[in-house]
């Protein structure tokens, strides 16, 4: 692309006819610009290389080694992947991850979109609602986990207290695998809904008001307006939210799981990323964990590609 | 294609005026309810942290036996002040260094011309797809190799590099008018002077928004500090809360006081700089 830029540049820097005379300083200035760019970019490029790019490659490379404790590596080819294929705990964790993603992403999407539509209205005190709905997002997942553990406690938690007061039996929220996963999902929705609400709100505010005026003059009801104007014009935002939340769900949730359920009960909330963490930092199985991690990345890439094709892509504007 | 429903809707238009008012009331009520659901757990945490051991689980919204003892306990029995300082120090350093590096890189990517620029930007952008949990293991090994484990440097350095900030800043710099720096270049200013004296002051709004965002994200970080440190003196506040919770089991009054202390700075920051935080979230979604 830099080739595209050069002609226009030549036009501005060599206005006079003496092209051979202008060549020297122009070249020097160009070189100086390259040098400056290199120096400006050096710290971040180096850092991203060492702390993001190399680890990514390393992660893949490690998956072919048996790593024991400190230092000793042994090449075992596809051994880790073979082990992964036959590890029922890993596949259980993948199933849980699948369920988690399939429930969390649509629920989060609908709730956030609904909230975005709600706080876009000119309601009295709408600023306060936006604030209240975004607030959980600024609290750390550790605090969120601690807090919900308190609220969901089977004996003393306020959730069960309220249910008993309403005449229901309390539930053992974090005590049974299915319910615990449901709680993890619900708490994640509670934390993240405000964030995606704001993103939807930004997308909604981009839609020209005239369209809505026109629809109103045509007598279109709220549903028709949503279906024919809002939804189609919101598509890039929807794609962005869908992609971000799916990728986040596939590899996220580690902080919350640690504090809220620690993978239990009966591994019911042991997401793949949690199982991988345990294998690596609990048992020192860095090679094996890397193999599973690479597999998870592969899934992530496939899912993103599928999302991209199905929605025909959100236009990631690269600014030029 | 929507002509049919439109026709039936316009048929019922006469009552529309009143319907609009009542639907507005309905939406307001709904907004109040969801806001309360959103707020309630946090409010409950804060009020419960002023209760005593025996009443913390009594189910009353407000403490009957208001006490500060939990906070005193948290700060005297546990090195909580130290945890807070560690979190503050690391988050602040990460934020300042990251903004400096990212704005430099973004300036070069947006305003300087050099071969391979767009490809380099593409590569930097692609690192956004590498989510932190995925590279946790190799990052740990890299940090161990560089002797960064159990040090402030280990908490700080890997957290600095993130393409998100570069991306947002580049987007901002692309929009700045070109005349400014062209005038400066004609005046004989070097690229560094242009960046330092012109571009950086102009980017104050976006830098402050990003600063809050970075500080928040790093204050709340848990997994990397968990992996990278074992030294008590380096414990950050999120780690402190997590281990406090496992140690104190059912002493909810202490645990909630500690959690409140950890959450409070972020809540204050949020209420003070709400507009900036929301703006930076918005821009991240638009581009």
TrEMBL record, chain A:
Compartments, as annotated in UniProt: Cell membrane
UniProt region (Disordered), positions on chain: 1-25
UniProt cross-references to PROSITE patterns, sorted A to Z: ABC_TM1 (PS50928)
GO cellular component, as recorded: plasma membrane
Gene3D superfamilies linked: MetI-like (1.10.3720.10)
Entry superkingdom: Bacteria
UniProt KW Transmembrane helix keyword: yes
Biased composition (Low complexity): 12-24
Recorded coiled-coil stretches: none
Residues spanning the membrane: 34-65, 98-119, 131-151, 179-202, 239-260, 286-310
UniProt keyword terms in alphabetical order: Cell membrane, Membrane, Transmembrane, Transmembrane helix, Transport
Domain ABC transmembrane type-1, first and last residues per copy: 94-307
InterPro entries according to UniProt: ABC_transporter_permease, MetI-like, MetI-like_sf
Record membrane topology: Multi-pass membrane protein
One protein family per Pfam: BPD_transp_1
CDD domains recorded: TM_PBP2
GO biological process: transmembrane transport
Keyword Nuclease: no
PANTHER family (UniProt xref): ABC TRANSPORTER PERMEASE PROTEIN (PTHR30193), INNER MEMBRANE ABC TRANSPORTER PERMEASE PROTEIN YCJO (PTHR30193:SF37)
Family designation: Belongs to the binding-protein-dependent transport system permease family.
Name of the molecule in the record: Sugar ABC transporter permease
UniProtKB/TrEMBL annotation, chain B:
Keyword tRNA-binding: no
Region entry Disordered, spans: 1-21
Family: Belongs to the binding-protein-dependent transport system permease family.
Main location per the UniProt record: membrane
Domain ABC transmembrane type-1: residue ranges: 84-273
Keyword Nucleotide-binding: no
Membrane spanning stretches: 27-46, 83-108, 120-140, 152-169, 206-227, 252-273
One Gene Ontology cellular component: plasma membrane
Annotated keywords: Cell membrane, Membrane, Transmembrane, Transmembrane helix, Transport
Membrane topology listed for this record: Multi-pass membrane protein
Compartment(s) where it occurs, according to its Swiss-Prot or TrEMBL record: Cell membrane
CDD domains referenced in this protein's UniProt entry, alphabetically: TM_PBP2 (cd06261)
Name under which the protein is recorded: Carbohydrate ABC transporter permease
Example GO biological process: transmembrane transport
